[in-house]
Amino acid sequence: MLHIVACIKQVPDTKIIKMNPKTNTMDRASAPAILNPYDAHAVEEAVRLKKRYGGTVSVLTMGPPPAVKAIKKCIEIGADEGYMISDRKFAGADTLATSYALTKALDKISKIQPVDLVLCGKMTIDGDTGQVGPGIARRLDIPPLTSVKKVEEVNKNDGFVIVHRKIEDGYEVIRSSLPCLMSVEKEINEVPYSPFPNMLRAARYEPHIWSVDDLEDVDVKQLGLKGSPTIVAKVWAPPKPEAGKMLEGTPNEKVEELLSIVLEKKELFQAKGVSQ
């Protein structure tokens, strides 16, 4: 029986979020909090593996109390248990401190039930670094399998997994020992609408919530801002692209105008020393 843990995060919906022009930071209050889309695919894949091989799916997150909603969403998808570490000492963590805190939580979960497989989304839409998953794998000393687009086989008895990893010009087939960590692509599956019984269970479900004091052998200097060697100095919205130009006149006139625009651009690039 497999025990799969999916690491998730609650994030602001970046399709809606606005930037604060005075502080050049994201106005998180301007957008609803959602389950990170890549993480939803990780949870769905964990549930599918549970159905194929049997076992248990747990989810783990770090965040403030409202992040419980993300865990409940995972219960809707089909996860069995949810764990959250929540403490002001975790606040301000970069990817290094985040991977440390989640690793300590995974250590505690593994004492409740040994963990065979850790799944993460490829990245979070509010950070886009893709560093937390590999960071956890490094701290746990297990193989990291990134950009996974298909899980072909999980064999707990013989202790291996076979996956397809997405690469620039196709994919590669990888065999890895268990336990291991996978960070998955969105194309690995489609997340369906949750069945009604799962929604009812999620509404009533209360996750396990741990503070720093509930974890073992934690070095508080590696948590939150204290354990974060990197900080985001400034965030800004990219400039809006210029509107396209409509060509008017007869077909011949349009062609001539288009050629003149192309030649003008070419001369501009040549003047800047850019080859075309």
3D structure, described in words:
With about 280 residues, the chain is α/β, with parallel strands linked by helices. The protein folds into 2 domains: about 1-220, 3-Layer(aba) Sandwich (Rossmann fold), CATH 3.40.50.620; about 240-275. Helix content is about 30%, strand content about 25%. It has 6 helices and 13 strands. The protein has helices at about 35-55, 70-75, 95-110, 130-140, 195-205, 250-270, and strands spanning about 1-5, 10, 20, 25, 35, 55-60, 80-85, 115-120, 145-155, 160-165, 170-175, 180-185, 210. The strands form 3 sheets. Strands 11-10-9-12-8-1-6-7-13 form a 9-stranded mixed sheet, with helices on both faces. Helix 3 packs across helix 4. The protein starts with a strand and ends in a 5-residue tail after the last helix.
- The CATH C-level name of the largest domain is Alpha Beta
Mean pLDDT: 90
What proportion strand? 25-35%
- The total number of structural domains is 2
Summarize the structure.
The protein has 276 residues and is of the alpha/beta class.
Give a quick set of tags describing it.
276 residues, alpha/beta, Rossmann fold, two-stranded antiparallel sheet
Question: Strands, helices and their partners?
Answer:
Layout: E1 2-7, E2 10-12, E3 18-20, E4 25-27, E5 33-35, H1 37-53, E6 55-62, H2 68-77, E7 81-85, H3 95-112, E8 117-121, H4 132-140, E9 144-155, E10 160-167, E11 170-177, E12 180-184, H5 196-204, E13 208-210, H6 251-271
Parallel strand pairs: 1-6, 1-8, 6-7, 7-13, 8-12, 9-12
Antiparallel strand pairs: 2-5, 3-4, 9-10, 10-11
Helix pairs in contact: 2-5, 3-4
